[in-house]
């Protein structure tokens, strides 16, 4: 499922980026100008996307992304920005060399590959140009867990598993094992302060960090 052509992805991405600049529907001529194509071919393509329920097309008004189209546009943007980050951080590219490579790579990468790279680079918040990388997960086929030693301050994690020792420790603190935690700071002795979604805070000692298996969730 979820097979999109390169052209479809480019249109969805263009509409997404134009939508960010307006609170009205995006005009077909704006899409055509953005993609440097003729208005009739933009109209034809948008009708195709509307048939697939990826966009809503209103004659004389323009076009809007529907949830599935919005999600695919966000994925393509994530793919592009993850690749740019990878090329600079891991492959020795200069910042001004990565855009063209990423324009091609973004379309040929599966959701699994993009999420694996994102995971490998420890969930970067922005690409090398400073644009925000969408944090939502597009691949749920496997969850990769880390222990608390690899967790980063300011990130929210789903608690995948806890050892009995860690659970006992929480009971002593009158804290029920949380489903999500955000790491708020690391103390000089290596212990960390975690915050739950209901804003309870507690210290997890350094020696217990390996007892917490976490799945990255969001920034
Ligand atoms: Zn770029």
From TrEMBL:
Keywords: Activator, Cytoplasm, DNA-binding, Manganese, Repressor, Transcription, Transcription regulation. The keyword Transferase does not apply. Gene3D superfamilies: Winged helix-like DNA-binding domain superfamily/Winged helix DNA-binding domain. It is found in: Cytoplasm. Pfam families: Fe_dep_repr_C, Fe_dep_repress. The keyword Cell wall biogenesis/degradation does not apply. One of its GO terms (cellular component) is cytoplasm. One of its GO terms (molecular function) is transition metal ion binding. SMART domains: HTH_DTXR (SM00529). Residues 1-66 form the HTH dtxR-type domain. Belongs to the DtxR/MntR family. Homodimer. This is Manganese transport regulator. It comes from Pseudolactococcus raffinolactis.
